Amino acid sequence: MTQITPRIMDVTPGPGGTAFLVVGKEKTALIDCAMAWSGRLLVEQVKEALGERPLDYLLLTHSHYDHMGGLPMVRAAFPQVEVLAHPHAKEVLAKASARGSIRQLGLEAAELYGPQWRQAVLDYPDEAIGVDRTLADGETLSLGEDTHLQALWTPGHTRCSMSFLLPEEGALFLSESVGVYTSREVLPGYVTSWRDAAAAVDRCEELGARLLIAPHSGLVPPQRAAAFWEEARRAIAESRELILSLHRAGKSPEEILAAYTARYRDCLAASQQPDRPFALNGQAAIGVLLREEAACRQ
What we know:
Layout: E1 2-3, E2 8-10, E3 20-23, E4 28-31, H1 39-50, E5 57-59, H2 65-68, H3 71-77, E6 82-85, H4 87-93, H5 96-113, H6 118-123, E7 133-134, E8 140-142, E9 148-153, E10 162-166, E11 171-173, E12 180-181, E13 186-187, H7 194-206, E14 211-214, E15 218-219, H8 222-225, H9 228-248, H10 253-264, H11 275-297
Helix pairs in contact: 1-3, 7-9, 9-10, 10-11
């Protein structure tokens, strides 16, 4: 557990997914809840941080398993918690097929990160996965007179991706649409639309946040924060050119994915994302980019 500011704590329980606690005078909120395998560890950290205070809200940046997998454990520990997300996330998480995929990916992650937690992933009830209330773009959630979280729809990684602004701290909790921060470089994060991701970068930069808190890595060091947005734009542009140049050269989707993996996989350790989800995201990114480019030519 790391104190980022007086209101913000990094309560990430282990590798593979992050979680951030925001504490106001009246209410408390958790932003994302990591993977299912580490859900119990997350609960321990949150309880330690809050003491006797309840957890009032759980805000999801999107519906992927590595951001909401710990949801059943959070619900069990804090029955009063209200889960909030974009309307599309609510639709996705209500589907039996999505819940099945979330559990399967969670089991695969448990084998990699903490096989002793595998049973916890098997045991939670499907109905624990879900959203209680949806957030509109621009909606503000009050945690007290001096702490407000503003929800910002920033699609591109998923259709339901949201970022959260805490203006009192000048802090912005980034969605993966703007990219994945690593110690070496910002990696492209688009999966459903590179154009939406580029727009998300522009929108988030305009907010002028002082602190950037990134999924999978936490607080972006101040010396890197100033250059973050240009790095994010470069990641989108360079990955787009890589995919298009290989496509123009007649390479197959499998060959393009191999080149994409060779370019980016080493920058993103397996401790941050297992191989199969990385490949699934890569396949989706390649497919959507080529479809968007084809649509522009019509």
